[in-house]
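Notebook B, p. 112. Complex prediction, attempt 2.
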Amino acid sequence: MELSRRKFIKTSAIAMASAAATGSIASLVGCSSPEPAEEGADPAASADAQAAANDREGITQTVGVCRFCGCGCGVIVEAKDGKVVAVKGDPDNGSNLGLNCVKGYHLATALYGEDRLTTPMIRDDKATKGTGAGAGLREATWDEALDLVASKLRETWKADKSRLAFWGSGQQPIVEGYCQAKFWKAGLLSNNIDPNARLCMASAVVGFMNVFQTDEPAGCYSDIDETDTFVTWGANMAEAHPMLYSRVQARILNGTDVKHYDVTTMNTRTSANADKVLLMNPGSDLAIANAVANYLIVNDLYDKDFVADHLKFKQGTEDIGNAFEDGYDKSEVGQTVDAVEEITFEQFAERLAPYTLEYAEEISGVPAADIKELAEVFADKDRKVLSLWTMGVNQHNRGTWMNHCIYNIHLLTGRYARPGDGAFSLTGQPSACGTAREVGTFCHRLPADLLVAQEPHRRYSEAIWNLPEGYLDAIEKPGMHTVKMFRELSNGNIDFLWSAHNNWAVSMPNLTRFLGKGDKKGIVDAFIVVSEVYPTLSTQYADVVLPAAMWVEREGQFGNAERRTAVFEKAVDPPGDAKWDLWMLMEIAKRTLEGETIGDADAFDALFGEWYDKDAADFKGDERETSRAIWEEYRTFSNPSLNPAAEAINAEAKLKMENKQLAPYDEYIENHGLTWPVREVDGKWLATKWRFCDGPQEDGFDQYGIEQYGAQDLAGGVSFYKSADQRPSVVFRPWEPPAEEPSEEYPFWLCTGRLLEHWHTGSMTRRIPELDRALPEALMDMNPDDCKELGLVDGDMARVTSRYGTCEVKVSTAGRTAQPKGRVFVPFFAEETLINLVVQDVYCPLSKEPDYKKTPVRIEKA
Amino acid sequence: MPFKGIAAIAVALGTVAATAAYGATRETPSLLRPPGALHEGGFFERCVKCGRCIEACPYRCIVAAPRDAGFQAGTPVIDPRAHACRMCDGFPCSAACPTGALEPVATRDEVRMGTARVNKDLCISYVGNRCEVCYRACPLIDEAITIEFAAREGDAIHAIFEPVINEDVCTGCGLCVERCVVSEPALAITIEPAT
């Protein structure tokens, strides 16, 4: 029987409700039987349905969020007999409407790899580090492992607290990150805490802070549905943001004359469907963006009312070199990188003037006519334009500058914070926004955009954390950012490192140095604790491995790219002796802080005593109650009226903390996620889709934010009430060449990144048999002519060498990413390839985010 | 850690019934032959089951048809679910054939081992999930397999990414079959061998 498209889709939608991601036969039959019967139509089918109903007895359903990328797709988790049996798209999630990418579709299986870590492990002999999976590790009890970890942490803390560090993640759930930051900053008075979000979002964050004085996008995913023009900058959305890219294609399909411009250094799956690809030389995006801005000004095509009502103009320090040396940040030039000064619009225009279309063509290799076409799109008042960008912009030796340049174009044309007209920085991880950025697990931050260096910010945090006034002055100076942390680890200047929710031994750049394969052996001597769910390359360097509950084995919260906070409910218990990360944190904090006081109070109890009973070694409530209670404290940061002392500081220092207002915990569960700021109106909590855009709150506009702090009737109907003087900054940033460029010795550009089938370092997705089959190895995409010249053919092994390190990888000329001559691309998911042995660790001087996209390499037949 | 499921050749070729019928009927079932194979009748006349193509295959994709394949037993076949043809540069398999059962192949686009067929009822891309593993695995991406975008009924904000086979270009190498994430109740993509 041939099924009509209409019927098939309808049936499939129902079948999605039983489509198990475990790949079980039953689920797939249910999902896509060639002859699905409608209810009551076929007696045999009814019998099947009865059998299916019996099978479903005892199945519990909980609401979750996908564990993988930054899209934040909602899922429904089905469990039976203590095991997750199915994960399906959540049809009530307004973003993914029940759909998933191939990773999310197979999510359940990620929990059940055969080598899940279920027992704490200790390494007695440091010489066994890096000698193989499990080598040198012995099983231990929790007490032994925790005592050891805490004693090493305490010993380091008492001796020299500049030598301890925690490396976290944009995959750490919100309340866990919140408690981790509280322990590190208020408990240990250390700023040596940083997340892996440093590797992906830091340039975007510094861009937001510099331009708007508040982090995260003004717009939301609905902008995709409302725009006429997409401009992707250094973003392979088709692979890295699968469900959002489906939304892009839906808009192109359903809209009229919707255009897509792709600004890129290689032809990706995203380029494949673009109307125009601006194929540029690596690092030349600044020249293109400046040429667009210059064209708009010279030809009088910018929005004068918007400029007059909203903008201020600046220029900054420019001759800042590159962050090759360990001492860069403290060098004379390194200390001036953030300096800016105000200039006039005319001076700004003068600075831009050299960036003619022809000059930009000369630098970028993109025809002047194409750059002009892009500029004309921004000038076209009948169009809406949405810029989307990711790692090509952020992982860039001038990543912060390039973020500025994108905002410059959008602000000059009044295309920001308005439906369909926006500049949207896509995040890569499920809670890079929710945890790393909003909680502030960075070395320079406190919760809710607050900074350790700002006195009122410390006072405000002390008020909420109930600390003596001035207590946090000890952390006035930012700690080590990620690259600094690992550089100092390799230098032997870190004695204690604890990591969780990441796999640094695969994901950090310059692994040749950091894994002790060169002359720096600090990794061997340092005491390293790794909280993990599976053995990874990082656990091979751990002195203690702490087995963690994974995803829905505990309750957690993620905040995605569109400021959407969502709760994933606990569905099952963790296996064996694996424990909730938050419990591990409490037990380590309890032991480390033993006998310490804050004011007159016991230090641990002052920080965590409300939620945790240290004598019972357990939380006072269940996971829901614990999460809710911690959330309630955390959300006080954005609801100052909940704390009189904080409220007074908020008013006096004009912090406007309500700009990131969060709702009570249960609202997120009931609504399957909400985008902040969330406003209480007549007893209901209403989300905001477009920050700073005036309009009714119930339609998703920022009515109450603007009423409280902003101004109405300004150009574009927007009001940037969180920006200094209510004016975002347009900052002139010049084009600078990449930190290193190809030479005779290293003639190729190496770019690394993510592909659709695998999440980050593959520690989860490679344990899903279907995904491992779908993409079993990392391939180096090469230009066929380059291959010919090097005597390489598709399928050959090649040796890739930079001045940092070397590895071997198989060559592909198939064109999944089609490379221009002189450029290659390698994904970073494969531990056996370990491309990061080769990648440089030079970083953007402002954001400290490394440039994974432009390492000069030599390629030879292996 | 990596999962290396080995499907039975017959199952992978979608010829479950044909296996049982080998000996009984002496009809020539369609099997997936190495690159350059003459059409089935001509191939079978010339193949002397010498195994040189099997030895020449660097990826061990080519295997001898099993004993229960009746009179075809011992002839070279490819089970794409286990090991798809990599279409090596220089095609060492066909170059090794002493009898002309496999004709020399110069370039990939000459190869016509078969044609991929997507089972739209089983494919998870056709309901709106972002899979398209077959498309991205295809050595002739955007040529042999392309993506056609279709509206999803009742959903204005997602497109269906339909993998579509271009029969004029598809070589039948089977890499799409090897990589497909759907295996139950059957593969969502199969190769129909050239006849």
